Amino acid sequence: MNFSLKVIDACCKIREKYNRPDFIIGYRLSPEEPFEDGLTMTETLKLVKVLLTKPIQYIHVSLLDYYKKIRYG
């Protein structure tokens, strides 16, 4: 999560530095990754809560298989 938030913060600083409020910043994520050490739904919800505090315009959620059951979380 730290890396993602640092990238968002850096993008927002550049947008502010160049006074470009029309420059849209968003975040795309997969809510749960299929591999053992992948992102879980619990971790995703924590990330989304923090993303909602950032000055971004959208969050894009994409999932490989809509009907798949979550692993845990």
Blueprint (SSEs and pairs):
Layout: H1 2-17, E1 26-29, H2 41-51, E2 58-61
Parallel strand pairs: 1-2
Keywords, separated by commas or semicolons:
73 residues; alpha+beta; two-stranded parallel ribbon; 2 strands; elongated
Q: How much is the average pLDDT?
A: 89
Class by helix and strand content?
Answer: alpha+beta
Biggest sheet strand line-up: 1-2
Q: Give the number of DSSP strands.
A: 2
List segments where confidence is low: pLDDT < 50 over at least 5 consecutive residues.
none
Approximate helicity band: 25-40%
Number of discrete domains: 1
Radius of gyration: 14 Å
Estimate the global geometry from the Cα principal axes: elongated
Number of helices: 2
**SSE pattern:** HEHE
Largest sheet: 2 strands, parallel
- Give the termini distance in whole angstroms: 17 Å
Strand portion = 5-15%
Description:
With 73 residues, this protein is α+β, with helices and mostly antiparallel strands. It has one domain (2-61). It has helices at residues 2-17, 41-51; strands spanning 26-29, 58-61. The longest helix has 16 residues, at 2-17.
Characterize this entry briefly.
By secondary structure, the chain is α+β, with helices and mostly antiparallel strands. The chain has helices at residues 2-17, 41-51, and strands at 26-29, 58-61. The chain contains two helices and two strands.
